[in-house]
Amino acid sequence: MTLLILGLILFLGVHSVRIVVPDIRARIIARGGGRGAWMWPYTGVAGAGFVLIILGYALARYETPILYTPLPALRHLALVVMLPVFPLLLAAYLKGRIGQIVSHPMLVATMLWGVAHLMANGTLADLLLFGGFLVWAILNRQSLIRREGGAAVAGKTWRRKDAIALVGGLALYLAFIGGLHALLFGVSPI
């Protein structure tokens, strides 16, 4: 459990720096080190945290106490909650209308991912991992919206990028429930 907690502290901590000190990235870059002065340490800490999360969760998930046993209906509902996650993740990078309608689609996807997994899993390790990411995504999104102001959604029409996000995201979803999740994580979501 220690590795999981340390990984979460490192990964979510470095991803939370701009919530607490919004202009830190710009200040570090302006000090003369360029983008690398920010990106190299940031990437190193995030990468180390990510590896520790993977190792820590793999070790902790079978030895951690069970806090609650999800109802079978919640496990099925979790599959529905996960449905928009992959399209939102793709929309975050493809920059179409979806990204304008859903402010910060990657963070919304992270929130849905966290909620869905908390609905289907009830151990302490699950609460730390999925609950930690859920709380972080909520706080980060609120911070970004506050910093950016309430920008109105422009009148863009749907684009090819939106179709790619939807079709590609749904294909990824089907791949995950069709066996990829079990292959990668050892657990079938169905």
UniProtKB/TrEMBL annotation:
It is a multi-pass membrane protein. Pfam families: NnrU. The chain crosses the membrane at residues 40-60, 72-94, 114-139, 163-187. The keyword Lyase does not apply. It is found in: Membrane. InterPro entries: NnrU_dom. Residues 3-189 form the NnrU domain. Keywords: Membrane, Transmembrane, Transmembrane helix. Its main location: membrane. This is NnrU family protein.
